[in-house]
Design goal:
Blueprint: E1 6-12, E2 18-25, E3 32-37, E4 43-45, H1 48-51, H2 56-78
Antiparallel strand pairs: 1-2, 2-3, 3-4
Length: about 80
């Protein structure tokens, strides 16, 4: 039996309104970043369209998680 490895990172905004979750699966090239907004049932998938609608600190957190997961995944694949 084969289990997919994944790396997950979570960030919470200081005001508690936003939660950013980044998931990088071992067999995928790019990480998937979700933004959860308090009071909404659905999550936003972070991309260029949603980027324009989010506050700067949330966008910065998304980009930071995206870079961190890309680095970790590339480092794991090279070992």
């Amino acid at each position: 039996m084969f289990f997919l490895q994944k790396v997950k990172r979570v960030w919470h905004s200081p005001n508690g309104k936003y939660r950013v979750v980044g998931i990088q699966f071992h067999d995928e090239i790019t990480a998937t970043i979700f933004v959860q907004v308090k009071g909404r049932k659905t999550s936003l998938t972070y991309n260029t369209r949603t980027k324009e609608k989010l506050p700067k600190n949330v966008v910065d957190a998304c980009e930071s998680i995206k870079q961190e997961l890309a680095f970790l995944c590339n480092h794991c694949k090279s070992n």
